[in-house]
Amino acid sequence: MKLSSPDFENGQPLPSFCAYGAENKSPELKLEDVPQNTKSLALIMDDPDAPRGTWVHWVLWNIPPDVHTIKKGQTPDGAVPGRNDFGNTRYDGPAPPSGVHRYYFRVYALDQTLNLPKGSTKSDLLKKIHGHVLASAELMGTFAASR
Length: 147
What we know:
Layout: E1 2-4, E2 29-32, E3 40-47, E4 55-63, E5 69-70, E6 80-81, E7 100-110, H1 122-129, E8 133-144
Antiparallel strand pairs: 1-2, 2-5, 3-4, 3-7, 4-6, 7-8
Keywords: Protein kinase inhibitor
Protein name: Kinase inhibitor
GO molecular function, one term: protein kinase inhibitor activity
């Protein structure tokens, strides 16, 4: 499985529209080579460089397996949003307090749809998908704190 974006290259800076203090819109994401027997997809975006440990920006599950593009600033129809570390059930973008942080987008192809309530956390999702991941893909972008 492959995850890419027309908005940024792997390891390169995320566009300014993604920032929490700007438009706060997720970048467009492209999925390729999703396994044929996939029943649903899940997505996590987090920042392992946050001062108090990994900060969760976006959690989604039950994304239909035929979704090949997650459009800029949108949640795919049918997807269930989880709670991020801002306390919201949506995408909230980079807002690093200092330095350059890495933001990982991870997509998981699952052999089932998930019975998980809206607003569940990344931790809840990871427990639920354990043993059900058919494939995964990762894309990393960076973002620097405003001076």
